[in-house]
Amino acid sequence: MSPAPIVDARAIHKHFGHLHVLRGVDLQVAEKELVFLIGPSGSGKSTLLRCLNRLEEPSAGSVTVDGIDMLDPRTDINKARQRIGMVFQSFNLYPHMTALGNVALALRKVQGLPRADAEAKAQAALERVHLADRADHYPAQLSGGQQQRVAIARAIALEPRVMLFDEPTSALDPELVGGVLAVMRELREDGMTMVVVSHEMGFARAAADRVVFMADGLIVETGPPGEIFANPQHERTRAFISQIE
Ligand code: ADP
Ligand code: MG
After folding, report:
1. One GO CC term of this entry (predicted)?
2. For ligand 1, is residue 47 a contact (CB within 6 Å)?
3. pLDDT grade for 245, boundaries at 50, 70 and 90
């Protein structure tokens, strides 16, 4: 028997008013798996990610993360969210705090660590994203790629069980994308469970265990990157892949 998935989302529906944005999505992510989520703009990828940590409230369905029922009103949602790291297109760093300060703040606020402990952990997290030597830099003194790596450090410092990435490199100049993807690959090699929404198909080929193609609020097709890219089974997938490559 395979172990229980870290992420187990079933029959997820999401309505925004009259818009039916997710129409019954099932997504299971195994421990240490990297699932790569693709699909046309507006297909519901961001909404699905946000339903996993309840930044959006699903209209129907169930979401379990690391055995915790995310939709149960008795669940301490702030505590449950500590298991789920999220990285967005925009880095959302505090401009008046250094890289170290930004990462340490999360540890102090979320885990209640004393300043010295938080800073030691923050420094270790910055090392993992190869920014130990930029710890005392302010966001404005860092490139976009470095800022995004600080945002990744802020998330991994909290030792999440799964990391969600929503277009982490979409706001970056092309020459800065590689450094962020390299850090994500290292995370994966260290055994992090990851769900990644991205247009970086080269990264999917190299690092994804599974590609999930969404359209119109439904999962159309899922499979290993080699199969989805070379031999998509559905016309909709074929059309999307021929556009982006
Ligand atoms: P994707 O990430 O695949 O581009 P999204 O999940 O962002 O798609 O959006 C799916 C659909 O839901 C789009 O039509 C979008 O306009 C709509 N949508 C997303 N968030 C909201 C919201 N907060 N209120 C109303 N509509 C929304
Ligand atoms: Mg999106």
Report:
1. plasma membrane
2. yes
3. low
